[in-house]
Amino acid sequence: MTKADVVSEIAAKTGVEKVAVQEVVETFFDVLKNNMGKGSNVYFRGFGSFIVKKRARKVARNIAKNTSLIIEPHYIPAFKPAKTFVEDVKKKVKK
Length: 95
Description:
Elements: H1 3-14, H2 18-37, E1 42-44, E2 48-55, E3 58-62, E4 67-71, E5 74-81, H3 83-92
Antiparallel strand pairs: 1-2, 2-5, 3-4
């Protein structure tokens, strides 16, 4: 499912124009990125948390040149789903 699919489905369910829904979705992502860029976590009760994780300093290898590289500590965005969200997905998705 793409962002356009999400916008279309929300517009169909709410009766709001696609342009307005797209603006809201884009603004949501901007707010999420801006807050995470400042180091803040974003929590949605019952859905999950968008968190900023710190990766430790490590030594990597470039096997083509047989050299070592040092990767400095850095932060990455991550998503941790809520337990209720995980349980809902487990119940609905069957193999």
